[in-house]
Prior knowledge:
Elements: H1 28-53, E1 57-64, H2 70-77, E2 86-90, H3 96-99, H4 105-108, E3 117-121, H5 130-133, H6 139-158, E4 161-169, H7 172-184, H8 194-201, H9 203-217, E5 224-228, H10 232-249
Parallel strand pairs: 1-3, 1-4, 2-3, 4-5
Helix pairs in contact: 1-10, 2-10
Adenosine monophosphate (AMP) binds at residues 91-94, 122, 126-127, 130-131.
Amino acid sequence: MDSYIVKPGKKIDITDYDPDDESQFSQGKQAGLERLSELTQKLDKLQEILYAEHKHKILVVLQARDAGGKDGTIRAVLSGINPQGVNIVSFKVPTAIELDHDYLWRIHQHLPAKGEMVVFNRSHYEDVLVVRVHNLITMDECKRRYTQIKQFEQMQAEEGTTILKLFLNVSKDEQKKRFQERLDIPEKNWKFNPGDLSERDLWPDYSKAYEDAINETSTSFSPWYIIPANHNWYRNLCVAEILVNTLESLDMHYPVPTTDLSQVVIK
Length: 267
Ligand code: AMP
Ligand code: MG
């Protein structure tokens, strides 16, 4: 999955990334679904050790355009995990109270503590994406925010947080298809938001905002991955592989008992 990492310092062109790509798994969808099921079981085990060891903190940032598949990814990839083991935080349009604080205020309080895994469904990146596209900040402010975000993430990494940032990359055609399903399928009607259509009209502006944000904030301690997201099974597989690989690389262990358990007698 390393081919989807944006290497720090490398300036990517977002249009070079193919949302239909399936190149990192050649065995096709059926085998992909079986592999995903193995990975979700592994994730459950890894999460238990993460919690038991009480050392590392895991933050997964999910960003995507509307209908980009954030919710579906969370459901599929985390389906095997103990519901107590992961905290999902969705960031919406800021409230009046949130707007009275700096944009990282609402983020900071949801960051993972030791032994915790947190998934952000949208994140502080909205404050350099939607906010930039709608000119709620100037370009100078936006550039300052890239630096602030990098420093904020560096501080978290130095304090023991492993950060993964995933951009789920869908094509404009695929988004159209998904919006159309929301109109056509009664059970999906509730997901249709007319406001999403005006955001769709701003597609090139969002492309540029994503490209700049990714280029400016992909670092060794907090890398961005650009995940091909037109095919759900492949997107889920990529995200699960990246999560499992990252957790395995932490070399976590169950804690060693502090007393000699062989001497414990239960009466
Ligand atoms: P959804 O994820 O579909 O529930 O929608 C959440 C909405 O909140 C999206 O339209 C986001 O762009 C918007 N949103 C999230 N964070 C911010 C932010 N910091 N400023 C403005 N809008 C935001
Ligand atoms: Mg939405």
